[in-house]
Amino acid sequence: MGMGGGLGIPKGGKMDRKKSNSVTELVKIVAKEVMQDTVRSAVQEELRREVEMDVEMDMGIGCRLGKPWSVCEDLRLKEEVNYTLNHMANKHGRSTGAIVSRLKKHYKEM
């Protein structure tokens, strides 16, 4: 047959440039599809967790005790804290840094 190992590579080890490019393109396409599937699966899982968390939060305080924090939950918490700090700063005519410093003074565990 003249090919090495059934891979389409001649015994001399050199491939036709045209075939090499098509194989390279095929590998790129497959890699892109695998990456898209991986990202899609990760997004779907995060959305599933988000919906689950929303349902549990509707059930009341304490229903998430001991459960891990999701990425979306972390982002939501940061947004809520930033909103609250900005609101407090505006209400007191202070900067958010001043509010954080004052809270740290009163709540040492922060």
Number of domains: 2
**Rg, Cα atoms, Å:** 28 Å
Question: Mind describing the biggest β-sheet?
Answer: 2 strands, antiparallel
| Mean residue pLDDT | 76
Helix content: 55-70%
Molecular shape: elongated
Give the percentage of residues in beta strands: under 5%
Low-confidence stretches: 1-7
Strand order of the largest sheet: 1-2
Give the helices and strands, then pairings.
Blueprint: E1 3-4, E2 9-10, H1 17-59, H2 71-92, H3 96-106
Give a description of the structure:
With about 110 residues, the chain is mainly alpha-helical. It has 2 domains: about 15-60; about 70-110. The protein is built from 3 helices and 2 strands; from the N terminus they run ββααα. It has helices at about 15-60, 70-90, 95-105, and strands at about 5, 10. A two-stranded antiparallel ribbon has the order 1-2. The longest helix is centred in the middle third of the chain and has 43 residues, at about 15-60. The protein is elongated. The chain starts with a strand and ends with a helix. About 0% of the residues are buried. Mean pLDDT is about 75; it is low at about 1-5.
Tags for this model:
110 residues, mainly alpha, 3 helices, 4% strand, elongated
Q: How do you describe this structure in short?
A:
This protein has 110 residues and is mainly α. It has 3 helices and 2 strands; from the N terminus they run E-E-H-H-H. The protein has helices at residues 17-59, 71-92, 96-106; strands at 3-4, 9-10.
